[in-house]
Amino acid sequence: MTTNPPTVLLIASDTIGRQMAGSGIRYWNLACVLGRQQPVTLAIPAATTLTPPPGVTLVPYGGPDAGEDRRGRTLAKLIAEHQVIVAQHLPYLYADSDLLASRFLVIDLYAPWILEKLEWARTDPERGEPARKDDVAILNRLLSLGDFFLCASERQRDFWLGALAAAGRIEFEHAAADSGLRTLIDVVPFGLPEAPPEKTGPGPRGTIAGIGSDDTVLLWNGGLWNWLDPLTAIRATHLLAAGDPGIRLVFMGTRSPVGWAAEMGIVIQARELARDLGLLDRHVVFNDWVPYDARQNWLLEADLTVSLHTVTAESRYSFRTRMLDNLWCGVPIVATEGDVLADLIREEGIGLTVPPEDPGAVAEAVRQILDPARRDAVRDTIAAVARRYTWERAGEPLLAYCREPRRIGTARGHDPVAAYIHNLERIYSETAQYGRHLERVIAQQNAALEGSIDARVRRLVHALRSRLRRR
Prior knowledge:
Layout: E1 8-11, H1 22-35, E2 40-44, E3 56-60, H2 68-80, E4 84-87, H3 97-101, E5 104-108, H4 113-123, H5 125-145, E6 148-151, H6 154-166, H7 172-177, E7 185-187, H8 204-207, E8 216-220, H9 230-241, E9 247-251, H10 265-276, E10 284-286, H11 295-299, E11 304-307, H12 313-317, H13 323-329, E12 333-336, H14 340-348, E13 351-354, H15 359-370, H16 372-386, H17 391-394, H18 396-403, H19 416-470
Parallel strand pairs: 1-2, 1-4, 2-3, 4-5, 5-6, 6-7, 8-9, 8-11, 9-10, 11-12, 12-13
């Protein structure tokens, strides 16, 4: 039975706290706007010091000592207590198939992570390729389970419509309800706050030694991932520094707050290139990570931002989430052409786009944007565009679905074969966990036994030495 309004559970996959990456930022803000409409529980990986927004209850489902089994069972219990579930991933090994079949499931596909995993596999095939294949299996399960799907752009929507068609999820009933199939999948991009940004503390000029008030700050807003192109940004800075000794390229974040995401190889390459060119800590600066509630302090001190990537399938379908903060703070952008935000930059005139891996083009675009007259014009344009991207407007399709959740068509439902496989997977998971538990117990017993033997040997040696000394 569905209450009025229905209860909503958002499952955040990434850290929620003062330091957040893209997915955590998204779920925090979607919870904020949904909480104004109806009761919302935001399930978070670990406890946070953030104060929950009105209408939102925060529930940790993990922590530093929580294993996969505990996390999965906590999430399954939360799913049982709510009617609408919004998530990028579901704990389907721990939630009965009948339970999932009885809930309205919104699957968030805003980050095409199977394309990101291609880049992981390309740089580390031994570990990345098995993980990528596992993710394909997970994605197929999610496509079969969802009642409604979200993505971040119309280009992504085309990609995911193809995937849904291959999964047998496009049905006559959806076309009858909406010929555009937005009853099946709709666009919920990233957003930005309605309130204008306010300076609450120092940015790069007040935080990083050597950056003066008159220096030109080029800010790399966001993290450094292997599929991005900081190397071209560094080479462009080398060209710019020859004529402008006050140029400073600042990387805003290199160490993701997401626990599972280690520093990537591209960070090492970028540092080495900056060192080789004589730019490190002079014209190129690497910062660890900026707290989410301090990001505007850095952006408001920037002259422009830089977002560059290489040509990959990931870049074509990506939605560079942190670029929305640029709009919020009115900062012009220089970006590689090819993704949807580059299209926005070009069409709306809020910056300049450049060909991939072209340091000269980047340097020239920076020079053009830094012309005072052009920079002021771009900032005025950004202010008009930003009003279209508030979280309230971005989240409208999700808000509408959560008010009146629905299940259209018959493809999503109870599948005896899927249920059988589900139970086999659960048995395998539980057996593997029990096996790991036995390994730990045996290791502890062996260590205790070795310690006991060592103690007896030490006592025997001590006794023999004492006898020898007495002789």
